[in-house]
Write a structure and sequence with these properties.
Largest sheet: 15 strands, mixed
Low-confidence stretches: 1-24
Radius of gyration: 17 Å
Helix content: under 10%
Length: 252
């Protein structure tokens, strides 16, 4: 098993790969991603802070436009100096519809490597897990557009910290979508609520931000999105074995 703390970076649900399908209920899905607030390549750096307020690692979020046929590449690069937990998603630039995604966890001192990939072949997503050279594969159905689901009604788990920046940021806004997690081999419903504005202090400075609640049947997480400009993610609180908080330290 990879480092306990590195398992804290964004996965909305912690579970074993190829587990049951998750909480795919009959909830009405709604349009979530409105528009991309970024207009050029971006690089944001964050401290990863645990419950005793100590910094145990860092994370870099990169937005790369015009990657692979004009699509957008979203990179999440996290580490604690020795171990890595990195993710990437290739998405449609206008809708954030996922094309493919990967999450790789490495612990060199124990010669361990885990890789979880998702390949979107509508109307299914194909999951491939590789643990130290031993592959496993499964598929899940994707939400189809109809009276209860928009197009798309699903987003990849690796795009979460970008998705919250492109929603309808206003107090009281609510939405639901199907989350697709390669790390668990599951799809499940996520509910989003914009609770309101807050003043947030992080190492880069003090910001007015929208507080966004992100909830599944088993986990509640929060993201704070700057109200001005390109709506940067200034803080995020991710639930896991321990809680971890992203705090913005540098922005390009």
């Amino acid at each position: 098993m990879i480092s306990r703390r590195l398992l804290l970076v964004p996965a909305l649900l912690a579970a074993g790969f190829l587990a049951a399908c998750g909480d795919n209920d009959d909830k009405v899905l709604t349009k979530v991603f409105v528009a991309a607030p970024w207009t050029s390549d971006e690089t944001f750096e964050y401290n990863l802070v645990i419950e005793d307020d100590s910094v145990y690692g860092t994370c870099v979020l990169e937005t790369r436009l015009n990657d692979e046929g004009g699509n957008t590449r979203l990179n999440r690069l996290c580490g604690d100096g020795n171990n890595r937990d990195d993710g990437t998603a290739l998405v449609d630039p206008a809708t954030l519809r996922p094309i493919s995604a990967n999450r790789t966890q490495m612990r060199p001192e124990k010669d361990q490597r885990l890789s979880f990939s998702s390949f979107y072949e509508y109307p299914i997503v194909r999951f491939v897990a590789d643990e130290d050279g031993e592959p496993r594969e499964t598929t899940r159905e994707l939400a189809e557009p109809d009276d209860t689901s928009p197009d798309p009604g699903y987003y990849d788990d690796e795009s979460l910290l970008w998705l919250v920046r492109g929603i309808d940021l206003r107090e009281g806004y609510e939405a639901s979508y199907q989350n697709v997690s390669a790390g668990t081999g599951q799809t499940f419903t996520v509910d989003i609520l914009v609770e309101g504005k807050e003043r947030v202090r992080v190492p880069l400075g003090e910001f007015t931000a929208w507080k966004v609640r992100i909830r599944t049947a088993s986990v509640t997480q929060y993201a704070w999105v700057e109200t001005e400009g390109s709506q940067r993610l200034v803080r995020a609180r991710i639930k896991g074995i321990q809680d971890v908080t992203y705090e913005l330290t540098r922005s390009e």
